[in-house]
């Protein structure tokens, strides 16, 4: 099975070309294939496919992906079906990259570049790569993403052809490439590297006159189209051919060197990074700068500011890209390491960097002016109207960089820094490029290059552990690979060191400061102000995956405005990332380093105070939010105490604000519950689980609900009995939703014993209600009815009106399932009155759903539809996603029974979208109902 994108998008399998479907579906496949093995978010896919995303695009995209998955599974070899899998808020095309022509082309080119083989083998690899090209890439696809990608792949292809041509000439077979080069120079008459390759091949084949004629053609095109002369390399080649001195065995870009008196052309780039992997998207963004530089309206130098945390590979990316595009800058490439974060604080002064550039440009020492301004003026004069690439590596700030920027629009500057050089963006028009950690596939590729495919394939699970322990940070992965290269030990030995608590950073040490992760991180922290450095240390104590500004303020014990300023300093230093406004995170190795500093540099008193403040912040805010979501809920059984001094809990004022805060914070809150339980903050652990319960239930996030209550149950072992009973009851509910019925029953029996011994009637009633619900999920409605009736009697004895409503609704539901729909209506109508009196919206919605079900089975379709719609209105307001899907499912059955299949399809489709997003097992049953509708529907005529 092969996926082809270097031409029209198509799939070949089982000896034939398969129908990929309409243009939009081909576009989706291409958008996934471009990033094979990596998650492409749903939003990114929609942006790639549609210039303006239409309503319903998400549903359309899902349908396309479903059909693509079926197509690929049908085309795959038996036993190894490729697939499109849902992951990280998007989709991954999980196939061998070698089955996609563009990735196979890149693999062959990379293999030819680093292979230790002769020209025969290298030429064969490059020839195979060239032959994968089938015409215009992404043929027939439109839009800006397709255009950008097509142009990038075209440039890669031209570079590959040039490399192949040079290899064939050196091998002694120039005739093998002349026809291809003639065709391409006709299509791309302004690409000087192609012209040089053709001139070299013609000369080597005994045709110097043809080579000179082609030079004249290229010169004419450049003058007519761009108003410029050929670059110095092409001019020098022309002169060498005239003199009969051209060496056809040398690289065209270096075939000749300027003679005496010619301007010096600097080639200062460091060596390219061996086995550079990944970063396709970032390379494409840098490629786009070339187009911007050559734009007709461009009047200023183009600048790219590449920023990212320590060890993320900024220099590697900049140098690798600079080598890829060096031919675009025939007047030279300048490079300097500005040492902005040197451990000895030996940051290079701009005056020293400019002097170095002047020396590289051939200025004699006696002609270098004394003053910096004069040196900068001379430097910029020498670069005027020249096509020069300037790489300013490891800059500290914009002030260090500005004197080194060229002033000509023909030049391009790439600046790398650990800091976000915001002033360069604001004042100098720089284009930001923020570098993050590698994708899992890119990290694996790096290790494969360093350690060999055989060693990686031998321990795949261990390799994943190493990648995770290194946080997908290129520096850490390189150090880990270097250590593995020096021994024949199994990779599991290294993985064990990396996973050992407290030793992760010790294991990532190759022997000197530059190859020691801890030391490299320390250079960034040393550059911080003392308050920002303290906040960084305290953030290492925070248990969640990210943190908001108010929580960080509580952690530090500072006011929010001051904390916001410090977080900004950490973000500009790339010690934190701000993926969404007001929320901050960092990768695991930086978090481990911050925690290490927190424990070594902060006193125990200060650490405990910071942890207490942030736990109070989360607990009090979550409790306030829950009261807005469920105002009729009984008071919390483990009362809160006032927050510590310096803690600043948020104060949501309405249902919408409460839902927004919980939606943002719940992954952190679940982690905080676990942390609090493990560290002995028992009351916080229990109170947070209680405060999260309503939200997690309404969102259908029962795995998180179970995790929270598991932590709370652990903490409740040191709290009074009612806390343990409540925790077991709520954990049983989550287990019931997850299908873990035996565990749920065990928890409920323990809870019932505790409530009975305590004489707590309401607790016993709610436990019987939960037992009834568990039995309903097992289709044991006669026993469920008995527990529901016991719950009703106990709630009446305790005078608990909301509890009576829930028990009456459960009695009615069980009666309906047992076929007594009249009794169901009676019990549920009583429940609805109770819920309306106490203002319990969720109870009303649940009861209306039961009434709708009973009316449906009595044939009262209009009444059933009305009940279901009223229930949906309440549930949507409450944000109870799973219950919305559940009611939509039953509403669809009523529509179908009433003879309205179109309405049934609409509501079932919405239900399926919700259940699919929740990854809920009920989705399959709804999918079957929709499929059955398709089978009985009259086929529609396909347009066009």
TrEMBL record:
<dbReference type="InterPro" id="IPR011990">
    <property type="entry name" value="TPR-like_helical_dom_sf"/>
</dbReference>
<feature type="DNA-binding region" description="OmpR/PhoB-type">
    <location>
        <begin position="1"/>
        <end position="95"/>
    </location>
</feature>
<dbReference type="Pfam" id="PF03704">
    <property type="entry name" value="BTAD"/>
</dbReference>
<feature type="repeat" description="TPR">
    <location>
        <begin position="765"/>
        <end position="798"/>
    </location>
</feature>
<protein>
    <submittedName>
        <fullName>DNA-binding SARP family transcriptional activator/tetratricopeptide (TPR) repeat protein</fullName>
    </submittedName>
</protein>
<dbReference type="GO" id="GO:0043531">
    <property type="term" value="F:ADP binding"/>
</dbReference>
<dbReference type="InterPro" id="IPR036388">
    <property type="entry name" value="WH-like_DNA-bd_sf"/>
</dbReference>
<feature type="domain" description="OmpR/PhoB-type">
    <location>
        <begin position="1"/>
        <end position="95"/>
    </location>
</feature>
<dbReference type="InterPro" id="IPR001867">
    <property type="entry name" value="OmpR/PhoB-type_DNA-bd"/>
</dbReference>
<dbReference type="GO" id="GO:0003677">
    <property type="term" value="F:DNA binding"/>
</dbReference>
<dbReference type="GO" id="GO:0000160">
    <property type="term" value="P:phosphorelay signal transduction system"/>
</dbReference>
<dbReference type="InterPro" id="IPR051677">
    <property type="entry name" value="AfsR-DnrI-RedD_regulator"/>
</dbReference>
<dbReference type="InterPro" id="IPR019734">
    <property type="entry name" value="TPR_rpt"/>
</dbReference>
<dbReference type="Pfam" id="PF13424">
    <property type="entry name" value="TPR_12"/>
</dbReference>
<dbReference type="InterPro" id="IPR005158">
    <property type="entry name" value="BTAD"/>
</dbReference>
<keyword id="KW-0804">Transcription</keyword>
<keyword id="KW-0805">Transcription regulation</keyword>
<dbReference type="InterPro" id="IPR016032">
    <property type="entry name" value="Sig_transdc_resp-reg_C-effctor"/>
</dbReference>
<feature type="repeat" description="TPR">
    <location>
        <begin position="845"/>
        <end position="878"/>
    </location>
</feature>
<keyword id="KW-0238">DNA-binding</keyword>
<comment type="similarity">
    <text>Belongs to the AfsR/DnrI/RedD regulatory family.</text>
</comment>
<dbReference type="Pfam" id="PF00486">
    <property type="entry name" value="Trans_reg_C"/>
</dbReference>
<dbReference type="GO" id="GO:0006355">
    <property type="term" value="P:regulation of DNA-templated transcription"/>
</dbReference>
<keyword id="KW-0802">TPR repeat</keyword>
<dbReference type="InterPro" id="IPR027417">
    <property type="entry name" value="P-loop_NTPase"/>
</dbReference>
């Amino acid at each position: 099975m092969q996926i082809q994108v270097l031409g029209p998008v198509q799939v070949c399998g089982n000896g034939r070309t398969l129908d990929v479907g309409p243009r939009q579906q081909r576009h989706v496949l291409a958008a996934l294939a471009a990033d094979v093995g990596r998650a492409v978010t749903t939003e990114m896919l929609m942006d790639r496919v549609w210039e303006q995303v239409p309503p319903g695009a998400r549903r359309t995209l899902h349908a396309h992906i479903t059909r693509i998955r079926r197509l690929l599974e049908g085309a795959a070899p038996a036993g190894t079906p490729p697939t499109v899998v849902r992951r990280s808020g998007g989709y991954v095309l999980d196939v061998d990259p070698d089955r996609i022509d563009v990735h196979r082309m890149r693999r062959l080119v990379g293999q030819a570049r680093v292979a230790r083989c002769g020209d025969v083998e290298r030429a064969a690899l490059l020839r195979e790569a060239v032959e994968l090209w089938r015409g215009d890439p992404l043929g027939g696809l439109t839009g800006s993403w397709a255009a950008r990608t097509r142009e990038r792949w075209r440039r890669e292809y031209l570079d590959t052809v040039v490399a192949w041509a040079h290899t064939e000439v050196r091998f002694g077979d120039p005739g093998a490439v002349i026809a291809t080069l003639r065709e391409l120079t006709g299509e791309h008459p302004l690409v000087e590297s192609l012209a040089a390759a053709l001139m070299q091949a013609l000369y080597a084949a005994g045709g110097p006159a043809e080579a000179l004629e082609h030079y004249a053609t290229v010169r004419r095109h450049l003058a007519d189209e761009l108003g410029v002369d050929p670059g110095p390399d092409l001019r020098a080649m022309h002169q060498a051919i005239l003199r009969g001195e051209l060496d056809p065995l040398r690289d065209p870009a270096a075939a000749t060197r300027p003679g005496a008196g010619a301007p010096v052309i600097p080639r200062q780039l460091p060596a390219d990074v061996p086995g550079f992997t990944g970063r396709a998207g970032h390379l494409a963004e840098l490629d786009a700068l070339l187009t911007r530089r050559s734009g007709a309206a461009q009047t200023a130098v183009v600048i790219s500011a590449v920023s990212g945390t320590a060890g993320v590979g900024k220099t590697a990316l900049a140098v690798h890209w600079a080598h890829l595009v060096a031919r675009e800058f025939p007047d030279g490439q300048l490079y300097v390491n500005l040492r902005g974060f040197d451990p000895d604080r030996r940051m290079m002064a701009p005056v020293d960097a400019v002097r170095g550039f002047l020396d590289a440009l051939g200025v004699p020492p006696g002609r270098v002016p004394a003053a910096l301004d004069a040196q900068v003026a001379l430097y910029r004069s020498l670069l005027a109207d020249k096509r020069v690439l300037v790489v300013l590596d490891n800059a500290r700030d914009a002030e260090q960089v500005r004197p080194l920027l060229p002033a000509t629009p023909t030049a391009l500057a790439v600046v790398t820094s650990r800091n976000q050089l915001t002033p360069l963006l604001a004042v100098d028009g720089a284009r930001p490029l923020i570098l993050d950690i590698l994708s899992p596939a890119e990290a694996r590729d790096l290790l494969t290059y360093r350690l060999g495919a055989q060693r990686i394939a031998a321990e795949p699970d261990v390799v994943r552990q190493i990648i995770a322990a290194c946080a997908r940070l290129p520096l850490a992965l390189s150090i880990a690979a270097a250590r593995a290269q020096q021994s024949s030990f199994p990779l599991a030995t290294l993985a064990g060191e990396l996973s050992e608590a407290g030793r992760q950073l010790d294991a990532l040490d190759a022997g000197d400061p530059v190859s020691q992760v801890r030391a490299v991180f320390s250079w960034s922290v040393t550059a911080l102000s003392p308050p920002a450095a303290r906040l960084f240390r305290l953030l290492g104590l925070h248990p969640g995956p990210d943190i908001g500004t108010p929580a960080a303020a509580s952690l530090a014990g500072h006011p929010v405005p001051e904390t916001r300023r410090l977080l900004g300093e950490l973000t500009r230093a790339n010690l934190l990332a701000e993926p969404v406004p007001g929320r901050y995170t960092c990768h695991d190795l930086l978090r481990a380093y911050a925690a290490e500093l927190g424990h070594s540099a902060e006193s125990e008193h200060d650490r405990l105070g910071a942890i207490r403040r942030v736990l109070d912040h989360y607990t009090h805010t979550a409790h306030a939010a829950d009261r807005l979501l469920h105002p009729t809920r009984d008071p919390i059984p483990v009362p809160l105490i006032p927050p510590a001094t310096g803690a600043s809990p948020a104060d949501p004022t309405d249902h919408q604000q409460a839902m927004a805060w919980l939606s943002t914070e719940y992954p952190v809150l679940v982690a905080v519950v676990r942390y609090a339980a493990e560290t002995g903050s028992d009351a916080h652990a229990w109170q947070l689980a209680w405060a999260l319960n309503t939200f997690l239930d309404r969102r259908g996030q029962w795995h998180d609900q179970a995790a929270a209550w598991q932590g709370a149950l652990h903490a409740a072992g040191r709290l009074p009995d009612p806390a343990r009973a409540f925790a077991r009851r709520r954990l049983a509910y989550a287990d019931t939703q997850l299908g873990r019925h035996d565990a749920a029953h065990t928890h409920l029996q323990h809870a019932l014993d505790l409530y009975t011994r305590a004489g707590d009637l309401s607790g016993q009633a709610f436990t019987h209600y939960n037992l009834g619900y568990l039995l309903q999920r097992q289709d044991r409605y006669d026993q469920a009815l008995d527990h529901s009736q016991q719950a009703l009697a106990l709630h009446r004895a305790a005078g608990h009106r909301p509890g009576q409503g829930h028990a009456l609704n459960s009695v009615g539901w069980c009666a309906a399932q047992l076929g007594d729909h009249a009794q169901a209506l009676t019990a549920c109508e009583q429940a609805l009155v109770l819920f309306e009196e106490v203002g319990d919206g969720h109870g009303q919605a649940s009861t209306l759903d039961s009434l709708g079900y009973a009316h449906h089975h009595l044939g009262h379709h209009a009444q059933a539809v009305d009940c279901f719609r009223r229930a949906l209105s309440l549930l949507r307001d409450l944000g109870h996603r799973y219950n919305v899907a559940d009611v939509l499912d039953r509403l669809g059955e009523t529509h179908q029974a009433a003879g309205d299949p179109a309405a049934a399809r609409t509501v079932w489709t919405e239900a399926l979208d919700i259940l699919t997003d929740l990854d809920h097992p009920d989705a399959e049953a709804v999918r079957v109902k929709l499929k059955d509708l398709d089978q009985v529907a009259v086929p529609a005529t396909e347009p066009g």
